[in-house]
Amino acid sequence: MLNLQSLSKTYADGTRALAGIDLAVPNAEIVALIGGSGCGKTTLLRLIAGLDRPSAGSIALDGEPITGPHPGVGLVFQESRLLPWLDVAGNVGFGIGDLPRRERAERVAHALERVGLAEHAGRWPRELSGGQQQRVSIARAFVANPRVLLLDEPFSALDAFTRKDLHRHLLALWEEVRPTVLIVTHDVAEAVALADRAIVMRPKPGRLDESIALDLRRPRDPAAPTSEAATRKILGALDRSLRPREASRAPELAGGSSF
Amino acid sequence: MSGSTVLPDTAPADTASPRRAALLGGGGRAALGLLLPVILAGAWEIAVASGLATGRLLPPPSRIGAALWSLAASGELWMHVEATLIRVGLGFAFGAGAGILIGTLTATLPALRWLVDPSLQALRAVPSLAWVPLFILWFGILETPKVALIAVGVFFPVYVGVAGAIASVDRKLIEVGRIFRLSKLALARRILLPAVLPATLTALRTGLGLGFLFVVAAELMGASEGLGYLLVDGQQFSKPDQILAAIICFAIVGKLADTALVALTTPLVRWQDTARETL
Lengths: 259, 279
Ligand SMILES: Nc1ncnc2c1ncn2[C@@H]1O[C@H](COP(=O)(O)OP(=O)(O)OP(=O)(O)O)[C@@H](O)[C@H]1O
Ligand SMILES: [Mg+2]
Description:
The complex is a heterodimer. Chain A is an alpha/beta fold.
């Protein structure tokens, strides 16, 4: 269980990026975070990843507090951030350098197989397409067998075809490792394709606004009536998040957000 | 680049018709670069041989060749080349070593940077040759002031290059190291070092070039051996062929040293997305 308790982040310049986030994510759940630009999605992931410290509140993974980068927490950045001086295999194995050579090579080969890049193991990052680079960075996060995987708009720069393909690869890896996943996305269809739950955020200061359960079976068919209903529910919540909070929410929920 | 199919007229040479590419590729391109000096040298040779010019102040290639040959045959040339190379080598080693060390320290320790960088920048503004009289007073006229001058010349570009390279390492890549919980040392070795390597090597090349510049100055200020001594000696005894022979040796030795440095270091930055052959 990943637990966030009254988590807040105010940057040095006074920007209130997040205020009072309460969230509990059961293990192996996939959560999609949706919200407009600037509502604190990246900030939230960076706090959970331990790259930045919260101004208030706490984060715990299975009861263990997270106060910095944690071996059980992986992060896939919006840009692939591959190390240009390492080939594809070197990049994928970057985070498991302390494993014995043999095991490392096996895990790297397996992860590359999983993301469909086995034949590109010896290439330089600059020789890959954007989608391939993003697959490498997902493989890099997965080989460390994270318990929590954070993805910050990992596919937003890609076309719809590539994105769909990567959803497939991501779910295949998820089936194997079954980490808890928090994925930030601007794409409602992406949330419906991947997530067990969509959380809509609102800005200034960043808060969680509404949580929408997506009880759909996998593999999912975007054209199925259940998917369409889920899409409508999320769009409705997004619409409400754009209006002043008090008017849009039932009074008993207006005070805080505990999901 | 697929521009050749769209804009055949403006396509760069490499993507033009295969025949032109073959003509200009590899050896062909090198031969083209030699064309101009060869023609000029040949023309001058003919002009002097036919009596159109005396060639007294600018000897024709055959006389320069003869001067080179006699220097080489007597073994004298190797002694001079060796003396010059030892000076450049020592000066480069000291200057580059200090540049890398101090550049690394000031780039990673802000307090040290605030303390010493302003002074170093002020010293950098001094034309290095201005130190010559002081170095002679301090170190005498033997090897030490020469090596010191070369080291000073090499130090500054390496210092500035290394400090700049470290300061501009992409913070985003450092975060990749943090996510995987690298120790400070591992972060330095696995991310900082490879990230700064290309700029460092460029700085070292610049430094080596300056090393050759300053070895000439150092040897002009008084030496009994070295290629620079051949220059002075040629001037005093009015031997332009010897001066030109020494200049040619400087060019060859400098180019060889640079090529060796590039050859030694290229494997370290093979990942780079640059057109290496244009460097
Ligand atoms: N390092 C920082 N210093 C000051 N303010 C910051 C910093 N990083 C982010 N902010 C501010 O915090 C708020 C939330 O930023 P954040 O990057 O988390 O948004 P986001 O939801 O990820 O947006 P986007 O969808 O555009 O990526 C914004 O108002 C932003 O300007
Ligand atoms: Mg963001």
